[in-house]
Every structure is written in C-alpha cells, then in structure tokens.
UniProtKB/TrEMBL annotation:
SMART domains: EAL, GGDEF, HAMP, PAC, PAS. InterPro entries: Biofilm_reg_signaling (IPR052155), EAL_dom (IPR001633), EAL_sf (IPR035919), GGDEF_dom (IPR000160), HAMP_dom (IPR003660), Nucleotide_cyclase (IPR029787), PAC (IPR001610), PAS (IPR000014). Residues 555-811 form the EAL domain. Residues 412-545 form the GGDEF domain. Residues 328-380 form the PAC domain. Keywords: Coiled coil, Membrane, Transmembrane, Transmembrane helix. Residues 216-246 form a coiled coil. This is EAL domain-containing protein.
C-alpha cells in the first residue's frame, strides 16, 4: 500500500545510478575548461591588435587637441598637468599603464615604465598652430601591460568564473539529486506521522524496488502484528473489565445526577458524618464539599425554627434510628455558615448496601424562602384590605366564626360593632374617589388606635367597618362603641381647601351561646346600624329585636333569600285579568304580577319580600328580570284571532325610573324579542312618577313613540295627584284600591272614585279600578261608568299559562262579570 507521497517520475529519478551522476558532473567541468582555453587563445591573439588600435586612437585625439591649441607644451610642469588631464579624459576606458609624448624638443611622460611593459609607438605630423612649430612632429609611445601578465590575469579570471559556475551547477544538481533521492524517505516520515496521529489503516509503500520498498514491507508487517496484538488485548480487557465499567458507569451517572439536581443533597455515613455535598448544597449551606467532608452533620446543617429561631431537630438521626424516611417538623430554616438564615424544607432517607444494611442517610433540602415569602404576601393580601391595610370581610367573617364557636362551646361573650360612615358620600361626590380613599385610610388608622390589640378591626366594604371585641361584655362594648363614635365625630377631614366633619353610625350586637351564625350576627348588627341612622345618625344602637331592629333584621334576611331565589330561578310570573266593566269590546287586558317560590316550594306573596327589595335597592334588578322574562313569554305566545288586541301590563318601580340605563335596556329588549310594542303597557306608581317626574316624562315619551301604553298606578294616594296628572302623558289611571274596596259602603270613597273617573274621562284617560272583590263593587263601578275593573272578585292571579288556558281564564272572567250584573 502506497502513501501517495511521490509520482512515477520521482520513482524513476530515485533509481538513477550514482556513477552516471558523477560522469555528468565531471563532463560538464571538462567542457567548461575547454571553453576557457579557447577563449584565452583567442584573447592572446587579439591583444596586439587591440593595443595598436588604442595607441592610434589616443595619438589622433592628442594631435587634434594640439592643433586646436588646447594643449601647450611650452612649460614642462604645466604641460604635464594639462597632458594628464587631457589623457585622463581621452583615454578613459583604455588599458595602457604609461605613455611618452615628444613634440619637437618637448617631452612629457605619464605613468611609470618597467621592463614587463609592451611599447607601441605612433608618429604623426602636426600642422602649425599658435605656440607650435609649423613643421613639428609628434612621437607618442604608449606602454601596455605585457601579454604574459594580461593573459595570466585573464586566465585567472576565467578559471575563477568557470569554477564558480561549476560550483553553482554542482550545488543545484546536488539539491535536485538530494530531493529526488530523499523524497521516498520523507514519504515514509509522513506516513509514520499519519500513523502516530491515529490513522491505523495507513501503511508504507511496498511497491518500490529499492531499499525503501524492502524497509516499507518490513515495517508494514511489524505494524500489522502490533495492531493484531492490540486488538486481542482490547478484547481481553473488555471482557475482564466489563463489570467494573458497568459499576463505574452507574457511579458516574449517579454523580452526574447529583450534580444536576436542583435540590441540595447531603449524604452521611452511619455516624452522621458528612460524606458528600452537591453544588446546590454547597451554595445553600456555604460549605465546600471538601471542607465539609468528615464533619458532624450538625456542624454543617444547623436547623432552626423559622419563627422562633430556636434550634430544630435534624431528621437524619431519626432516619437512621427508625430506618425510615423522616422530615423536618414545622416551618424550619437553615442557618448558613455565614450566619444568615434561609427558609427550607428538608427530609432524610436511609441508604442501604446490597445486603440491605443501613450505611448512611441522604438528606434533601429545598430553598423555599421565596415561596414562603410569596405565600405570606398572598395570605396577607387575601385577608387584608389593600386600601386601609385592615382585615377584609373574608378574614373578619373567619374570626367571627371562631368567636361564635368559642361562645357556643365555652360560653364566652363577645361584641360585634357594625360602623357606617355618615358623610362619606358627600366627600366622594364633592372631591372625587381619591379623596374618598384617603378618608377611608385615615379613618382606618384612627380607629385602629382606639381598639385593643386582641380586637379585630376590618373594612367590610365601601364605607362600612366592623369591630370584633373578643372576650367583651355588652356594657364594655357599648363604652368602646361610644368612644369610637366620639373619636370619629371629633375628626376633621381636610382635602385641599375643604374641611369635612365626619360622623359614624354604629350597630352593636352581643355574641353569646344563643347566637345562630355569622350571617345572622352581621345582619343583626347591620339592622341596629340602620336604626341608628334612622334616629339621627352619629350614634350607637344596640340590637335587642325592638325599635324597628327586628323588622329591619327580617328585611335583611329577605335580601339574601331574594338573591338566592334569583340565582335558583325561583321567581315566578303571574297574571290577573283586567275586564271591561260595561261588557263592551274593550282591549283584552291583563297585569303581570311577581311571585316567589320559597325553599320548600310554597308561593311567597309579593308584599312579603318587595319592601325589603325596595329598601335594599334590589327593585331595579328585579324589574329587569321581570321585563326580560315577560317579553320572552309574549314573544313565545304571539297574537291569535281570538286575542288580536291582547295587552299586558308590567309594573316598574321608582328605582328603575331613576336608573339612567333602564330606558335603553327596555328598548333593547323590545328589539331583541320582537314583541309588538302595542302589546305592552307599563305601570308606574303615582309616588314614583312624582319623585322622578323628569325621568318619568322622558321614559313615557320614548316608549309611547314606539307604541307602548302607560298606566298611572295607585292614583289618588298622593296629595298632589291632579296637579301632576297634566304633565304625564298616560293612557290609564288605576284608582287606588283603598278607595275602591269600600266604595259600595262608604259615600266618601264612592265620591273619590267618582271624582277620579270624571277627571280622567275629561282628560281622555281610561279608568281602571283595583280591588274589585265582589259584584256590589262592580255594580257601583258600572253605575259611574268606570272603564275597567281588576280584582279577586273578577279573576284571581294565576301563573302564566298556554294560550288555551288563557282563553279559558278569559271566559271565566266573563262569567263572573255577567253574574255580577243586576
């Protein structure tokens, strides 16, 4: 196998015999010498001709200068200097060593004469010129180096040149031959380097026929033998150390796992001496692995209770003693080597050998400082009000439950205070919510300094606060409540250039073993607070079930029941027919009424829950529910030939009229359900319309423009009924039932009904009489010419039914009317 280090030409060159190389070299030397001899012979024959030619040229040049007057020989000293200058100029490049010039009697010599020189003489005639004889003659003798000397110098120079040439050629040839002969060696060196670099398949070139080929074959056989021996050795080592390698791999994987795990891992021996700390444990404890190795575990892992800072028990000793997994009891922290403390969670598990014997323990620690800090923050936020920093309603109810439990189990007594600010709305409306928030924060701080450390002060919502006085009797509770009331009364809230006096109404209730639950206690305190507001504000009222507190408490219970009934869809729609008194073809009319089914399935009359809904401002929400469900029912029961002019009345409260968004809500519902507006009549009470006269007029105008009709309910109950009637564009007047129910027996009531009926007809308004309970009342109404009648004597309210059932109800109402006729 070849190594690719040389080509065929290099192989042939490397086989060139050394003697041929020598013959070529010495042959070139002889050729060079022959050339030198020929050159020297030719040079010797040319020397005489060259000297004669140079002498003639110099003689002619000097003659011309003498004739021109440029060279005067009158004075020997001056003549010599001038002759040397002229000869130096004219004889530049000539090979003479000396010369002698005779002009007439004047003789000038330049240079030195010796016996080895060769003389060449030249005679010329000089024509007359200034300072020179007219027939003067010039004799120039030029002395050149002898031929022997010249040829010797040439021979030496030629030999030196030839020697240098031969030497240079020999060196070049030697380099070429050396490279040609050493290339196989360098090729073997390159192959050896590749082999030592890891290319085990590389072999030396065995194809050469010279010594290199033999050497390559020998080395290749040795390499093959070594490779075979190494392969056998590797296989033997693999077989011998496979189990050890597996064990080492498992250990290495375990170490890598411990290095990579995000928890702190500490291993100990059975004597609880530290054996190993992974990098996380080093960072957590502040101890380096090597420094901690062999130390008692207590010196490295110093556990303390997070809250008290007292020493906590390490789980490792228990783990080794019980041969079980053990954890740290309670919230613990680790005191690091530098003295800092970090919250941790830790557990320890025993380590066993192959025989199952416990040889130590592994302890795992987690840094939970951030998690606990976040948990504390979340716990605080979940139990405290973000504005005032006081306990929130959830936390207050939790502590109230605990107080109730202690009262019922241990007979303890506590007091609950319910505080409602009296002037908060004024500040909020005058200065904005930022000022209102600042007021609440300042009052929270003020009240917090007036209660005991064992008491709980909380913001229950809005401008309402609660105080739980634990272990306090009723008398002491009243004193604290009065103190809080006075402190708030003395407080002045300053905002920019305004000063506001603030008051607080406080409801107080005692918590004892007869208290029901937290909701009942809070409701009782709220009821007492309401009574305090009704009786003049900025005072304390104790709940005792009288002075309106019991009634208020009952209403508050209804609030919760109303909310629950709405959530569970237990509100019901009923209808009561309104019939024409004179038996004409008046519009088929009915009023939609609201009922509620209680938790036991019984029907609750409206006057049982409507007052509570009105007092706690739930009527707008209830009215929305009624409008939506009534219109959906009407959409599901379209008009038929037998009910072409059927119209239904829907009652609206004064709270809905005062709601700026309620009108748009009604319009949207009419559009959504697609119910013809002519089928809908809205009833509003006289007192509600008068209290919201502006909104009532707008409400009536917008919906009448869409086709709805309106009835003014309970007319005659107000003292200014007639004065407002002209300002309300209504279609019906419903006479207050208090006048109708006794009109057959009481002349005054009869006169009131007669007056309302007459005024209404004069204004073009149709009249509806309520509370028609018998035929005698119906006969009086017919006598007066009242248009419509409604009451239990005509039709008892019933749930909304199918169209067939409604027709049956209408026929029943007709029979009642006929039976009442005289």
């Amino acid at each position: 196998m070849t190594d690719g280090s040389g080509g065929d030409t290099e192989i042939l060159a490397s086989r060139l015999p050394a003697k041929i190389t020598g013959i070529v070299f010495w042959g070139m030397v002889l050729v060079g010498l022959l050339i030198a001899v020929v050159v020297l012979k030719g040079r010797e024959s040319d020397l005489g001709a060259r000297n004669l030619s140079e002498a003639r040229l110099l003689a002619l040049a000097l003659t011309e200068r003498i004739e021109e007057g440029g060279l005067a020989l009158a004075e020997p000293g001056r003549s010599r200097a001038e002759l040397e200058r002229v000869v130096g100029t004219l004889g530049a490049g000539l090979h003479f060593e000396a010369l002698e010039l005779r002009v007439g009697a004047d003789v000038v010599r330049i240079g030195r004469r010796n016996g080895d020189q060769e003389a060449v003489s030249e005679s010329l005639r000089i024509h007359g010129r200034q300072g020179v004889s007219t027939d003067g003659a010039m004799q120039l003798t030029v002395l050149f180096p002898s031929r022997t000397k010249t040829i010797s110098e040439y021979r030496k120079n030629v030999l030196i040149s030839i020697g240098l040439l031969v030497l240079a050629f020999g060196l070049i040839l030697q380099q070429i031959l050396q490279r040609m002969l050493s290339r196989p060696f360098f090729g073997m060196v390159a192959t050896a380097k590749r082999f030592s670099g890891g290319s085990r398949e590389v072999r030396f070139d065995e194809t050469r026929g010279d010594e290199f080929g033999f050497l390559a074959k020998f080395i290749n056989r040795a390499l093959d033998s070594i490779e075979q021996q190494q392969a056998d050795l590797r296989r033997a080592l693999e077989r011998a150390t496979r189990s050890e390698a597996e064990l080492f791999g498992e250990k290495e994987r375990a170490e890598v796992t411990l290095q990579s795990i995000t928890d702190a891992v500490i291993t100990t021996n059975s004597a609880t001496e530290v054996q190993y700390l992974n990098p996380v444990a080093e960072r957590l404890t502040g101890w380096a692995n090597l420094a901690a190795r062999g130390l008692p575990l207590e010196d490295v892992i110093h556990l303390v209770h997070e809250e008290s800072g007292q020493a906590a028990r390490n789980p490792v000793p228990d783990c080794l003693a019980n041969n079980s997994v053990e954890g740290v009891r309670g919230p613990a922290a680790l005191r690091r080597r530098d003295g800092t403390v970090v919250a941790i969670e830790a557990s320890a598990a025993p380590m066993r050998n192959d025989a199952g014997d416990v040889i130590g323990a592994v302890m795992v620690c987690q840094d939970v400082s951030q998690a606990r800090k976040l948990a504390h923050q979340l716990s605080h936020q979940a139990s405290h009000d973000s504005l005032t920093g006081l306990a929130n309603r959830r936390e207050f109810e939790h502590r109230l439950d605990a107080a109730l439990e202690s009262a019922q189990r241990e007979g303890k007594r506590h007091v609950l205070l319910y505080l409602d600010l009296d002037q908060f709305k004024v500040v909020n409306d005058t200065c904005g919510h930022v000022a209102g928030d600042q007021l609440l924060a300042q009052l929270g701080n003020l009240l917090g300094h007036k209660v005991r450390n064992s008491d709980t002060l909380a913001r229950l919502g809005g401008d309402e606060f609660g105080v739980l006085l634990e272990g306090c009797d009723l008398e002491r509770g009243e004193q604290i409540a009065e103190s809080l009331c006075q402190s708030v009364a003395d407080f002045r809230f300053v905002w920019k250039d305004k000063i506001f006096p603030i008051g607080v109404s406080i409801g107080l209730v005692e918590i004892n073993d007869s208290s029901e639950n937290s909701a009942a206690v809070l409701s009782a305190a709220d009821a007492a607070c309401y009574v305090a507001k009704d009786e003049g504000r900025s005072r304390v009222e104790v709940f005792r079930g009288d002075k309106g507190g019991g009634e208020r408490y009952g209403e508050m219970q209804w609030v919760a029941r109303i909310h629950k009934a709405m959530q569970e869809n237990r509100l019901l729609l009923y209808r009561q027919n309104i019939v024409a008194v004179a038996g004409g073809e008046g519009t088929a009319h009915a009023e939609i009424l609201l009922r509620m089914r209680d938790e036991n399935g019984s029907i609750v009359p409206p006057m049982a829950f409507i007052p509570a809904a009105e007092r706690y401002h739930l009527m707008a929400k209830i009215d929305r529910w009624v409008v939506t469900n009534a219109l959906e029912w009407l959409a599901a029961h379209p008009l038929t030939p037998s009910r072409q002019r059927q119209c239904f009345s829907i009652n609206l409260s004064g709270q809905s009229l005062g709601d700026g968004n309620f009108l748009q809500f009604v319009v949207d519902e009419l559009v959504r359900t697609g119910v013809p507006a002519e089928r809908v009549c809205f009833e509003v009470t006289e007192t509600a319309a008068i209290a919201n006269i502006g909104r009532a007029r707008e409400f009536i105008a917008v919906l009448k423009a869409r086709g709805c009709t309106f009835a003014l309910d309970d007319f005659g109950s107000g003292m200014s009924s007639y004065s407002y009637l002209k300002n309300l564009d209504v279609d019906y007047l419903k006479i207050d039932g208090a006048f109708v129910k006794d009109m057959a027996l009481d002349p005054v009531d009869f006169a009131m009904v007669e007056s309302i009926n007459r005024i209404g007809h004069v204004m073009g308004i149709r009249i509806i009489a309520e509370f028609v309970e018998n035929g005698a009342i119906l006969a009086k109404l017919e006598e007066l010419g009242v248009d419509f009648a409604q009451g239990y004597g005509i039709h008892k309210p019933e749930a909304l039914l199918s169209p067939a059932a409604e027709d049956q109800a209408a026929r029943t109402a007709g029979r009642v009317r006929s039976a009442s006729a005289p």
